[in-house]
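Feature request, filed as a ticket because there's no other form

It would be nice if the structure record came with a short human-readable summary line next to the tokens. Right now we just get the raw output. Example of a typical job, pasted below so the devs can see what we mean:
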Amino acid sequence: MTTILEAADRIEQFVGASLTKRISAIETNLKGFDKKACENLYPSFDITLTLFDSAFTLKKAAGQIDVLIHAIGILLLLPHILDEGETIEVLSLGAGNTGRPFDLETNQRVAEFKFINWQGGSESIRQNSLFKDYYLMAEHPTTKSKYLYVVGTKHPLKFLTGGRSLDSVFSRNTKLGSDFQKKYGVQFTKVCDYYEFRKSVVQLVDVTEIIPQLNTFAKTDVKK
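Raw output as currently delivered:
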């Protein structure tokens, strides 16, 4: 079985300085080739089943990166956000809270963490996820303080105070939409309407103001 380090080394050797240039060179070299010629050329380009296996090994590992970022990010923040006398009651570091309502619950607060590097464009899926966390926390019956920790507040606030329709937000989560409608009917039609109603309930906190280095790390993320 190929290890992650072996896979990374093999992929790095294949890619070289540029994957685009590498692929372009292969495309050019194969022009006019027949079956036998392809088979003869592949070894010089390291086109093998081992390379294919290495790519899948890295893809599988990369699928766990978001979970790792979530877990380590929370762990790094805990010493900075917990107050004197505040103790952890429930901690959910994995994806989806694994049956627990929030990422963190202490004797004083409940909290969710969103380590999303907002790009500022059309980010409906990220917005939907943010609204879901905000809504579930805002509606949760507790006297404890409620916190939603994000990487920068500019884009989250732009969404929460914007005019996107709630129907659009709920289009991919009918269960959440049904729950919302049962509570509020047609009282709110836009995200900003609900946020204005509940904005004093959940504190939106920028994690880069707590640990400035997180801003530098987040800027290297081109995906989430």
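Something like this underneath would help us a lot:
Strands lie at 88-91, 104-106, 109-114, 145-150, 202-206.
The two ends are 30 Å apart (CA to CA).
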